[in-house]
Amino acid sequence: MASGFAQWGNDLYTGRRSYDIVGKRRLWFLIGAVLVLISAVLLVRPGLNPGIEFRGGSEFRINEIVDPAEQPAIDAVTAVSEEEEEARVSRIGSSALRVQTATLTSEEVEEVRTALAEAYDVSTDQVTSSFIGPTWGADVSDKAIRGLLVFLGLVTVVMTLYFRNWRMAAAALIALFHDLVVTVGVYAAVGWEVTPATVIGFLTILGYSLYDTVVVFDKVRENTVGVLDQSKATYAERANLAVNQTLVRSINTSVVALLPVSAILFVGAFILGAGTLRDIALALFVGMAIGTFSSIFLATPFEVALRQGEPRIKEHTARVLRSRTAASEGGEPALAAAARASGQIRPGTHLGTAAQPRRKPSKR
Q1: Quick one: pLDDT at residue 349?
Q2: Parallel, antiparallel, or unpaired for β 49-50 and 193-194?
Q3: Strand order through the sheet with 96-101
Q4: Which sequence ranges are marked TM in the entry (predicted)?
Q5: 174 φ/ψ sector (left φ>0, alpha ψ -120 to 50, else beta)
Q6: Is 115 found in the same domain as 223?
Q7: φ/ψ of residue 179, rounded to 5
Q8: Which residues contact 5 (CB under 8 A, 6 or more apart)?
């Protein structure tokens, strides 16, 4: 099986096997647009679930619980606090609970601690409390937005200078926007709290997605050097070859990266319960998976779509297609014309109307 996968990768790199990814770009654009639209709807309803770090409030942690059921904690908080907002209870590991409430007074905090200790039959020393102000969350949000804007600005400048092509920078930004919106939309659908660890995960996936996109673009640039000086393949076909040549690498890199992240997600979600590991692992897992999709099926097709509007590219594409039509009408079979255009047949090689098997020279 490994040898078959390696052979498949070699065939993709040499061009013996090819998938028309760029040619079907309208399909990928439609899929990406649908994912972004669904994510936008999820961001409105039910919307994101901000953690206590962003909305502020009081937090209690109950340790060494024999039966960590959630309802007794809700009843204990409701009996003391007059706030209409229901307490948020999440399990931490197998013997601890985290209870988040609205902002409470010092007297209410002590009353809730006592009520929680009685509800779970533990001493008040096993119930810890803390207060988090909403200004801290606002400060984190502000810095996260600034960091995102600075990151996108640097990406635009560096990619434009490196590739000497603003279209590649624009395509990369579109792919990044797609990855970020879809990842946030999944978070809204799951309903997990958005914490500072989640924000870190969102920013991390942008770097991962950009790295994979740059690798593909680098191959596109290599394949399209001097593309206007030949008549065997169009710009879109050379770009499609680059995507096929990097396809195996993108898959391998994603699988290797997703395996440990999925393990962290499993441990954080099902063993340790709510916490930093779970929050950052979900963002990384979804972002890496959707980033692989965008780097293969969105970034390069977007770049090709932008380049197709250039007069030089239009003229060159028309010239290549006219050359193929002339070769086909001149008696060369369509399959041979396509092979000649893709470079599998050397220029100047004559092919008849039917392939003739080669005969060994006579020994006489």
Answers
A1: 42
A2: parallel
A3: 88-92, 96-101, 57-62, 127-132
A4: 27-48, 144-163, 170-188, 194-211, 255-274, 280-306
A5: alpha
A6: no
A7: -65, -45
A8: 248
Sign of the alpha-carbon dihedral angle for 345, 351, 354, 360: negative
Q: Which amino acid is at 144?
A: A
Domain span holding position 323: 311-342
Which 3 state secondary structure label does DSSP give 306?
helix
Please give the pLDDT value at position 293. 93
Position 7 in a domain: no
SS3 call for 347: coil
What is the model's pLDDT at position 85? 63
Mean pLDDT by 10 residues, the chain (364 residues): 73 85 94 96 89 84 82 83 72 82 85 89 88 75 83 87 88 92 92 84 85 91 89 91 91 89 80 72 89 93 92 90 80 48 43 43 48
**How far separated are the first and last CA of the chain, in Å rounded?**
47
Q: How many domains does the chain have?
A: 3
Q: Are residues 293 and 200 in the same domain?
A: yes
For residue 92, what are the contacts with CB-CB under 8 A and spacing of at least 6? 61, 98, 272, 273, 274, 275
The per-residue b/e assignment along 11-30, b for 16 or more CB within 10 angstroms, e otherwise, is ebbebeebeebbeebeebbe
Contact 250, 216 (CB under 8 A): yes
- The whole-number pLDDT of residue 361 equals 53
The residue length of the chain stands at 364
* DSSP track, 59-126: EEEE-S-SS--SHHHHHHHHHH---SSPPEEEEETTTEEEEEES---HHHHHHHHHHHHHHTT--GGG
142: left (phi over 0), alpha (psi -120 to 50) or beta: alpha
* pLDDT in the model for residue 341: 46
Do 124 and 162 belong together in one domain?
no
Query: Could you tell me the CATH number of the domain that includes residue 109?
Result: 3.30.70.3400
Per the CB < 8 A criterion, the answer to whether 128 and 60 are in contact is yes
Please report the pLDDT score of residue 353 as a whole number.
Answer: 39
SS3 (DSSP) at 30? helix
Q: Which residues, 6+ apart, have CB-to-CB distance to 113 below 8 Å?
A: 60, 124, 127, 129
Q: What is the pLDDT of residue 235?
A: 93
Residue with tokens 């100047």: 348
